[in-house]
Write a structure and sequence with these properties.
Length: 275
């Protein structure tokens, strides 16, 4: 995908995205000559019911961020009761279900949300991420990332670019992953997920210099205690490939301290540096 094309569609996971904005939908058709032309719906056009539903959804977001998932679900239920056609509420309920490990319910809610708002780029990106990760359907996910990127009003295309890049890596399509992630790099060069993704691309190619370059960017722009187990394990393997045993040991100490029970630390313990 060319950068020029991506800019025409011009983040947020990349923490898990939060859907708060109401869908803007165009009114089709035209009235008599003496009537005002139709307009896009904006915040000032919200009904009292829509405002009540949005307030409930905002409350749900707060509870979700505090990991109070059952309370968040209850607030989403109230938002949907107020406005049964509130697509973002169904999309956010799907995010909560993913956090709770309820993938079938998450899938149902994403699909319903997209039936209500098929052109919503946030929903498309989030459903693509779900399909790629929890759903185990990376090939299907790519369609949703592309749908999000083609939307002319999508305000955070970097999310979809990074997600598409990482999903391409799951399918061993390293060339496609590189294209998506380089596009994301041009938009937001300091984003940790972009630098980690490109480091992974070049690690897969055994290009130690480029892999090291992006791992260095990652560790320079993000604090070590914010890196995930997966990112630390990648950094350890890249530093080993470069022969930098001091940096490798420092990163391994972080992995051992913060994620002692993780699959990544288990891989480190058994010396699976090239898996």
């Amino acid at each position: 995908m060319a950068l020029a094309r991506a800019r025409l569609s011009a983040l947020p996971s990349l923490a898990v995205p939060v859907l708060l904005a109401a869908l803007l939908s165009a009114c089709a058709g035209s009235g008599p000559m003496n009537e005002s032309p139709r307009e896009l719906k904006t915040a000032s056009d919200q009904t009292a019911i829509e405002k009540r539903a949005q307030i409930r959804l905002q409350l749900a977001v707060g509870y979700y961020q505090d990991h109070k998932y059952e309370i968040a679900l209850d607030e989403v239920k109230k938002a949907i009761a107020a406005d049964p056609n509130y697509a973002d509420a169904y999309g956010f309920r799907a995010l909560i279900y993913v956090a709770m490990g309820e993938n079938l319910l998450a899938d149902e809610n994403y699909r319903h949300a997209l039936r209500l708002a098929p052109r919503n780029p946030e929903l498309s990106n989030n459903y693509g991420l779900f399909l790629c990760e929890a759903g185990g359907k990376p090939a299907q996910a790519m369609t949703y990332f592309e749908t999000a990127l083609k939307h002319p009003a999508y305000g955070s295309p970097v999310k979809a670019m990074v997600n598409a890049g990482n999903c391409s890596l799951k399918m061993k399509n390293v060339d496609a992953a590189e294209r998506y992630l380089l596009d994301a790099l041009r938009y937001e060069p300091e984003l940790a997920a972009t630098n980690a993704g490109l480091a992974r691309v070049y690690f897969e190619r055994r290009d130690s210099n480029r892999a090291g370059f992006f791992i260095n960017r990652l560790t320079e722009t993000a604090k070590l205690d914010t890196l995930s187990a997966d990112e630390l394990w990648l950094a350890i393997r890249v530093k080993r490939m470069l022969g930098d045993r001091s940096a490798e040991a420092s990163l391994a100490a972080q992995l051992r301290k913060r994620f002692p029970g993780s699959p990544e630390y288990a891989a480190f313990e058994r010396g699976a540096f090239n898996e």
